[in-house]
Amino acid sequence: MSSIRQTSARLADGREIIYFDDAGTQPRERRIDTRELDPRPPTPSMRFDVLSSEWVTVATARQTRVHLPSADLDPLAPQSAGNPSEIPDLYDVAVFENRSPSFGPDSGNETIVASTDEANDARQPPIGAVQLASGRCEVVAFDPDRAGTFGTQSTVRARTIIEAWAERTRALSAVPGVQQVFPFENRGVEIGVTLHHPHGQIYAYPYVPQRIRRIARSIGERGPGLFAEILEHELAGPRLLIEGEHFTAFVPFASRWPVELQVLPHRHIPDLAATTTAERDELASMTLRLARGLDALYDAPLPYIAGWLQAPVAAYRDELRLGWSVTSPRRAADKLKFLAGSEAVMGAWVADISPEASAARLRDAIAKADEQHPVEPLNQQWGAMRDA
């Protein structure tokens, strides 16, 4: 089969759009975006919270973003006479700059440093520090069809999505001022999703977020082999979900959410851009099996947040290992976990379900999904496409 193809174009207001065609899709000339659009909003600003050592973006233009549009006005479907959407042409996977971004469109050359050390460190921004929220925010449309989810995609399409995540990680890591690249997917109105069309996003931050800095601090305290030790511990434990040739999926030992899983590679990989073809092939199958298993838990689409934790662009590359993290607040078929006082204010978590019980339920759900909706091997799907 031919390889996944990538082509780039511009939308009517100058934003970039990148098409990723499935292996086997024939080349085509893309339609031009002829809409009349308002100018892009100015780049938001960021304010530094000196108590938490975190940057907070103030992006007021996001107040006007699209909210749960009707099916005939789907902004992620291919454009038609009655639907002036964001994507001018038919596509397999499309990535484009967000119209209402949290970061950008301007990119900056100034490196923003928020120290992981004591609060009086000389590198800490002062009280009242404000910076331009440089960077980039992109939307990743998984499929031209509004019906479906990531878990309902074919293995070939999942492989194209993996390729898009990896290639955009590589490209965004080269943008001046970008310090961290984060591909993620929010799913379900319970999470706050405002578009039902299957899609994800990619944030390119001008700083290293607090979550990554905390992980880096733990590695500094415990040693550079921490991820290898975690993987060894989980491979021998009752929380194992799927063990592949290149990756392993498991429920973390100290899970916070009612449903939580993590995927780690067997070798050290800093980000998706550093994965091999074989590793991306396995990720396509494994992430699909996990997504279908999650939906089999309650025989309904599970609300979740799925994100790729990667090493920063220019720090901790030899210590911080790539990982896929999925969390869901659903603790029963008709119950959600809400973050109240202890978790929301103090950051002191209380788990409602033991990680071992959660892992057992997930293993059963994955087995159920494997039986009812098996994930076809890539080679088998490519062979069928070639024969057709």
TrEMBL record:
Its EC number is 2.7.7.12. Residues 15-45 are annotated as: Disordered. GO terms for molecular function: UDP-glucose:hexose-1-phosphate uridylyltransferase activity; zinc ion binding. It is an enzyme of class 2 (transferase). GO terms for cellular component: cytoplasm. It catalyses: alpha-D-galactose 1-phosphate + UDP-alpha-D-glucose = alpha-D-glucose 1-phosphate + UDP-alpha-D-galactose. The active site is at H199 (tele-ump-histidine intermediate). Pathway: Carbohydrate metabolism; galactose metabolism. Its cofactor is Zn(2+). SUPFAM superfamilies: HIT-like (SSF54197). It comes from the Bacteria. Gene3D superfamilies: HIT-like. Keywords: Carbohydrate metabolism, Galactose metabolism, Metal-binding, Nucleotidyltransferase, Transferase, Zinc. It holds the Pfam family GalP_UDP_tr_C. Belongs to the galactose-1-phosphate uridylyltransferase type 1 family. NCBIfam families: galT_1. This is Galactose-1-phosphate uridylyltransferase. The lineage of its organism: Bacteria, Bacillati, Actinomycetota, Actinomycetes, Micrococcales.
